[in-house]
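Supplementary Methods S3. Input chains for the assembly prediction are listed below.
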Amino acid sequence: MTERDADARPEADASAQPTDHPPRADGGTETSDGGVADTTFGTRRGEFGVGEVPPEYETESTVEEHRSTLERIVRTLRRDRLALAGAIFVLLFVVVAVFAPYVAPHGPEETFGLMKPPLSESVGDFDGDGQTETVTHYLGTDSFGHDLLTRIIYGARVSLLVALATVGVAFSIGTTLGIVAGYYGGWIDSVIMRYVDFQWAFPEIILGVGIIAVMGGLGVVNVVLAIGIAFIDDFARIIRGEVLSIREEEYITAARAVGMGDLRIMFKEMVPNAIAPLIVQATLMIPLAILAEAGLSFLGLGVKPTTPTWGLLISDGRQFISRAPWISVIPGLAIMLVVLAFNTLGDGLRDAFDISQSEVE
Amino acid sequence: MSADGDQAPAAGSTGKSANASTGDFADAETVLEADGLEKYFSQSDSIFDRLLGGGGKVRAVDGVDLELRTGETLAVVGESGCGKSTLGQALLNLHKPTGGAVRYRGEDITGLSGRDMRPYRAEIQMIFQDPLASLNPRQTVGEILTAPMEVHGIGDSKADRRDRARDLLERVGLEARHVDRYPQQFSGGQQQRVGIARALAVEPDVIVADEPVSALDVSVQAQILQLLEDLQAEFDLSLLFITHDLSVVRHVADRVAVMYLGEIVETAPTDALFETQHHPYSEALLSAVPRIDPDARGGRIVLEGNVPSPINPPEGCRFHTRCHRVIPPADWEADQAAFRRAFTFRNRVESGAVDPEAARRRLEAEGEPSDDDAVAAHLLETSLPGSPSDLPSATREALEEAADLLVAGDEADAVDRLASVLSSPCQDETPAVVEPDPDRTAACHRTDPDAPGSPPADD
Amino acid sequence: MATEPPVERPNRAGGRDPLLEVGGLQTQFPVERGTVEAVATADLSIEPGEIVGLVGESGSGKSVLAQSLMGMVEAPGEVVGGVVALRDSDLVREFAAAFPDAVTDVSEEDLALVRADEPAITSDAEAAATLAGPGEFVFVESRDADGDPEAGFVDVRRAPEAALQRLRGGRISMVFQDPMNSMNPTLTVGEQIAETVRLHQDVGESVSLPAELKRKIVGAAKNGEAWRRAIEMLEAVEIPEAEARADDFPHEFSGGMRQRAMIAMALSCEPDLLIADEPTTALDVTIQAQILDELTALKDAFDTSILLITHDLAVVAETCDRVNVMYAGEIVERAPADELFANPQHPYTQGLIASTPRVSNPDDEIEPIQGNVPDLIDVPYACHFAPRCPESERECFEREPDFREVGESHEAACLRRGPPGDRL
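Predicted C-alpha cells for the full assembly:
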C-alpha cells in the first residue's frame, strides 16, 4: 500500500458518489436503546443515509476546474506583467507586419530627402501632383531617401514571414526526428542523434551560409530553408528528451496494452504531452530566426537587396554609421525590442505550461 | 459478452464466493498459460558493457509455469522485486520474453510483434497500480475510453463509441456525464474505475491486474474489489491478480501462486494455502501479515536478512539464504536451528559482507585489543547469530578457522573451509516442482519425497 | 471543538502526566478556493513509554498533524491554533535557562480561572497556553525551593525556530515513509548518524562549518566518539556487520536496512518522543514485521514514546497501546488498541474495520464505506463524516460532535453514541 505523503491534498469531487451500490432499502428503524456492542456497520440507519445531505448543506460540485492550455496562458499573463508586456509587443509587431500597407505612412519605394535625421522634414513634390508637400520623417530617412519608419514596418513583414516559416520548417523536421529517435531508441536513435550532434557543433549562421552556398542563389525560400535546417537540432533534442521520459509513463504502457500502433502512440499519446516545451522553444527560436535572417541579409546572403528587411537596413547604414548613425541603430533597436518581447513571452509560457506549478497554489 | 450488459451473466460464474471453497476451477479450461517463461534484463545497454561482457543479467522472471483457468481469479503474490509485475507484462507481451512460451487458448503468442499481437490485445487486458499515471493527463475520459475501440474497430461511428464510453462509465460506477472530464478531476478510486473501464472497452476474456488497489485507501480499496468481483461475474472474466497483499488475496483469489526471486515456489487453491503451506516462504510470508484480531496472531516467523539480488541469485533453492527450515546435512549433530545460525554465518562470508578491517578499526577506536585473534573473535561474535557454544565442535572449529582466514585476508579459503562442514541440499540442488496435494504444487526439498537428505525429525 | 461540559478524560486515567499533550491543534493551508483545514481541531496525548497510534486514510490530515508537532508544516500551511505541550522537568529547566525571556509561570489558581471562563478548554496545557504573553513558550507550573523550575512544559507550537532546532532530532525525532528521500545520498550512513550525535550531544566534536567541511572532504575520523556511537546505534537496530555497513552509502542499503538506519539516526540522541510517519508502508511484509518488532523493542531499550502514524489498521492493532482514529482533519475516536478493535464505536471506525480485508476470517464480506473523503476546503457541516455515515441525522450536520465515553478509557466523537441520555 503506497499512500502518497501529500496527506492534505484536497480530494477532488466529494459529491459524486459511486452508483454501483445504491443505498440499501431502509433496513432498520431507529433504536433508542442501542447497546454499546452494536458494531455492525451500516445496519442502523439515520435520517440521512450514505450520500444524503440535508438540502441546506448541499454544496456545489467542488470539482477542481480543468484548465485548458489557453486558460493557463491567460492566467499567467494576468499575473506576470513582464510576460504581458512581451505579449502585447509581439501582438503589435504581428499586427503592424500584417497590415503594413495600411499602417505605413508611405510606400516602401518612395524616396525623399537623403539621410534625414529623425523628426526632420522633407519638402518637395513627392506624389507627383505638382504641389509641394512637407513630410515629417519620425525616424529619419536612409541613404536612398526611403522613409525609415516605412522601411521598418515593411521589414517587419519579411522578418515575421521568414521567422515563422523558418521555425515551422525546423519544428516539423526536428520534432519528427526527435520523436522517432526517442521512441525507437537503439541504432535509429544513435544515427539521428549523431547527426544532431554534428549539426549542433556548427554555429547556426555558418551552417546557414553553407546551405545557401550549396543551394545557390538568393531569395526568401532559400533563406527559410537554410535557417530552418540549421535550427532542427534544437527541436530534435528537446522532444527526444521529452519522449524518453514520457516513454516510461504508465499510460504509454497502457496504450500498448490496448493494441495501439507506434504512430498512434507517438502522435496521439506522446506529442500532446510533449508539446508545451516545444511551443516555448518555438517562441524563443522566432527571435533567433529574425536575428539569423538579419545576419544573412547583412552579409548579403539573404533576400534580394531591394527587399526591405531589418538586416539589410542595418547593412546599408553601415557605411554611413558616423554621419547618419540612426540608419543602422533604429532597425537594430527594433530587432532588439522584438527579440526581448518574444523572450519574455516565452518565459511566461514556460510557467503557464508547467502543470506542477500552476496547480499547486 | 457485451458492453451493454443486457446479457445475463453466464451461469456458474459468480466469482470467488461460489467457487473458491469447492475448487471448481481444477477442471476448468486453461485460458492463458506461461510455460517456462523467462524475462532477463541486461543491466546495461552501453556498448562498453556489451563488448566487455560485463553488466550481469537481471533474472526478473526465471522459468515460470503458470496457468490461468477460465473464469477464475489467480493471485500472483510476492514481495517487491520478486518479478511478479514483470511476469504480468511478459504475459501481455509488453516485455518480450527472453525464453519460454506464452499461450492464449493454446495459441503461441510469445513475442508476437505489434500487428500480429493486436487481435490478442482485445482478449487480454491490463489494469495498473497507479490509476493516475496510467491515464493520459491530456485526454478526456471519453478519449481514453474510445481509443481502444477505434484501434479494434469496435463501434460503428464516433457517436456510437462515445455512447459505449458513457455506458462503460456507468458500468464501473461513475456517471455518464463525466465523459468529458480529465483524469486529474477524479479521486484515486474513481481514476481506478476509469482504468477498469478502459480495460473493459475491448471486451476482453482475461484481465491482468497489477496491484490494482495498492495505491488506494482501505475504504476505497473495498469498493474497487467489489466492483472487480461484480464485473468478473458479469463478463465471465479470468483475472490474474498481481499483489503483495495477502489479506486482499484471501478475499479475491480462487487460486494463489507464490513468487520468490523470479520463480514460483508454490501454487494452491486459496483456502488450502491459508490452511497449510508447503513452502517455507509461503509460511513465513503468511505469518508476517499483521492481524487486527488478537486471536488470529500466531508466532511470527522473522526471516533472516534481505532478498538476494536477482542478478546473481543463490544456487539451489533460491530461498535457502533466508529459509528458517533449511535442511542440514545428513550427518549434522545438533538441531536445525543451530544449523540455520551457522549457515547464516557462511552465507554472510560468501556474500563478502564480513569486513575484518572495519572490525579492527572499531576495536582500535574503542581501545580494545585489536590483534588478529581479537578481530577474529569479534567477527565471529558479530556475524554469527547467537553463541557458538551450542554448535557441534567440528563446526565451531571450522567457524573459528574461517574467521582466522578472513583476518589473514584469505577470503577464498575461508569460504571453502565453511563449505566443508556447512553444506545443505537446499544449496546444492535445485528443488523439483512436486504435487503434494491435488491441484497444488510446491518447489521445496521438504515437500519432495524423493529429495536428497532426509529432513530431520525435530520439526 | 467540544461545547458540552468537560468529561473526565479517560485518556489520562493512568495518573501519569502525559509526555505530550496536544490540545485544540489547528493547521490550515490557504488555497485558491478557500482554506483547507488539514487539522481541524485535534486533541492527543502520549504518556511516557507508550506507543500511540494515529490511524487514518489519505486526506485525513495525519501527516500534517505530525508535521505540526515538529513545527515543520510547510508554507503556506500554518498552525493557527492550539497547544503542543512537551512535558518534562529536565526539558523545562534546560529551556528556561536557554530562553529566559520566554518563561511564564502559571499557577493552579490561574488555571482554575481560565477553566471557569472557558468550559470548552479541558486540558491544563490548553488553559495555561491562554495565559502566554507574546514570545512566551516555556510554561513553569511549579518551582523548587531554589526557584528552579520543577514541573511544566514547553509549547512546541509557540516555540521559535531556534528552540525548534534544539528539539528536533534531540527531544523529538521523526522517521519517514521513504528513508531514501530523507537521507543524504552523498554521505555514508555512519557519518549521517554521527552528525546527528554531534549536533545534539556533547561529544567534544566541533559542529562548526569548517569542521563539518573537513569531515566531508577528508572523511570523518573513525575513532571519534560520534562515529562509535553511530556503529552502536546500527548494531542496536540489528544491522549485521555494523562497522562495515557504517561506511556504506544509503543507496547501498536495501529498503529495510535504510529504514533501520533511519530509526538508528532518530534514536541516536535518545529522544523522548519518536514520531514514525508510515514507517513500514514502503516495505515488504516480511521486512515490515522485522521493523515493527524492532520499534517495540527499541521503545523499551531507549525509554522513548512513539507516535505511530499509519493507514494500516492491522499494524496499529499489533503494535500500539492506544489508538486515535482520524478522519478529515478530526480525531473521531480514541481507545486502547484491544478495546478499539474489539468494540469500535464511531461509525467511521466501524466502517473502516468492516472494509479492511483480513487474512484470518475470509467469510466476513468486506464492506466498503461509500463515497470519498470530503474536500477539506471550508467544510460546511459539523461532523465531517456525516455525508458518508449510514446513521446521520440532521443534527449531525448542525452540531459539532463532542467526545463521549463509550467504554473503558474509550471515547468517540459522535452524537449518536455515549450515555443514552445524551445520545441523539
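Chain A has 13 helices and two strands. The radius of gyration of chain A is 31 Å.
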